Amino acid sequence: MSGYIRRLRWAHLALSLLGIIGPSFAAGSERATITMWFWGASPAYRQVLQEALVNPFNSRQEKYRLVIEYRTTVDSDVRISAIANRGPDIIYTSGPATVSPLGKAGKLEPLETYAKRYGWDDRLLAPVLDACRQYTHLYCVTPSLCVNGMFYNKAVLRENGWPIPKSLQQVEAVMKAAQAKGMYASVTGNSGWQPVNEDYISIFLNQIVGPAKIHDLLSGRLNWSSPDVEAAMVELDRWYKAGYLGGSDYFVLDFESSLALLHQKRSPFFFAPSFSFQWAVNYFKGSEADDLGFAPFPRLNSNLPYPIYDVGSAFTLSINANSTVKDGAAQVLDMILSAEFVLAISKQWPGYWSIPLKNFPSDQTATGVAESYYQSMADISAAVKSGAFGYNAASYFPNATKDLLVQDVEGVWLGEETPRQMLMRADRVFAKERARGLAIDGVPPPHF
Question: Mind listing the domains of the chain with CATH numbers?
Answer without folding.
Answer: 3-141+315-351 (3.40.190.10), 146-311+386-435 (3.40.190.10)
